[in-house]
């Protein structure tokens, strides 16, 4: 067994991609094949598969709780064995790349700092901690109203894109059933839908981290990362076992824009939405 991984958790649109890319530039290996959000396809696909077994997905993640029940223990064990087998099979090259695969043959055999980011980890963490009992966890959180608005923008953009694509292909669309829907997430088309999803991820993250010792958890707020990028990046890099070089950290963080913190305050609709949910925000130590 090699170096234990660093597992990133946190709600979608909360800054996991930003933090992951910063740490990747400092030497953290996060996967050879990643999607546009810098999520390792190998682990993303496994997380999606785990959720689907319970009838869930990223915007309906609560269903995964059924996998941790005593009745589902055979399913959990079989799923764990399947994931473990994949990590030591040629499929591992999807994460490792061919060069690393031929030299190490297994994902758990990594000798240098590595890990993966996927917001779904927030709900699948018990599964991964069973496979990697010494793993460390980085939790990044962001103000729920900014998250909800980012989700709403993305969901509406997906409708425009998929509808336009369908209109262009309509004459031949009968040849093959449509594989995806017209919206990435109907739930997130409303601010309340996205906000309630943020609350679900926040609740799950806190519950998951409560059982881990403090030395295995690093918590960071997206807003703090934007305002103090150098100091925070140094701290989280050390937590991940990465060498910290001041000049490189400064160069990497120079492009970070602190004005993106609490951007909802510049929008009257979003500010009103936040004020109406003042009590719910206080639960997470956030203010309107």
TrEMBL record:
Which InterPro entries does its entry note? P-loop_NTPase (IPR027417)
**What is this organism's lineage?**
Bacteria, Pseudomonadati, Pseudomonadota, Gammaproteobacteria, Oceanospirillales
Annotated GO molecular function terms are: transferase activity
Under what name is this protein listed? Sulfotransferase
The Enzyme Commission number assigned here is: 2.8.2.-
Alphabetically sorted, this entry's keywords are:
Transferase
């Amino acid at each position: 067994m090699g170096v234990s991984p660093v597992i990133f958790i946190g709600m979608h649109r909360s800054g996991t991609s930003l933090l992951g890319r910063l740490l990747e530039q400092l030497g953290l290996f996060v996967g050879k094949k990643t999607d546009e959000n810098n999520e390792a396809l190998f682990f993303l696909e496994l997380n999606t598969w785990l959720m689907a077994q319970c009838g869930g997905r990223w915007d309906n993640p609560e269903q995964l709780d059924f996998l941790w029940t005593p009745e589902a223990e055979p399913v959990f064990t079989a799923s764990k064995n399947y994931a473990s087998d994949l990590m030591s099979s040629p499929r591992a090259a999807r994460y490792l790349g061919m060069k690393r695969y031929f030299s190490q043959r297994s994902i758990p055999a990594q000798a240098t700092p590595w890990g993966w980011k996927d917001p779904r980890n927030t709900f699948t963490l018990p599964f991964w901690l069973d496979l990697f009992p010494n793993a460390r966890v980085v939790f990044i959180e962001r103000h729920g109203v900014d998250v909800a608005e980012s989700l709403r923008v993305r969901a509406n953009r997906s409708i425009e894109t998929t509808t336009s694509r369908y209109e262009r292909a309509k004459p031949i669309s009968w040849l093959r059933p449509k594989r995806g829907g017209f919206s990435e997430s109907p739930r997130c088309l409303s601010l309340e839908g996205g906000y309630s999803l943020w609350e679900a991820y926040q609740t799950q993250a806190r519950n998951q981290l409560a059982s881990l010792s403090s030395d295995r958890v690093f918590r960071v707020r997206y807003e703090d990362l934007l305002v103090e990028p150098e100091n925070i990046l140094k701290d989280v890099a050390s937590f991940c076992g990465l060498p910290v070089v001041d000049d490189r950290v400064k160069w990497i963080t120079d492009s970070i824009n602190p004005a993106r913190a609490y951007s909802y305050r510049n929008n009257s609709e979003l500010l009103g939405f936040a004020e109406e949910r003042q009590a719910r925000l206080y639960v997470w130590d956030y203010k309107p």
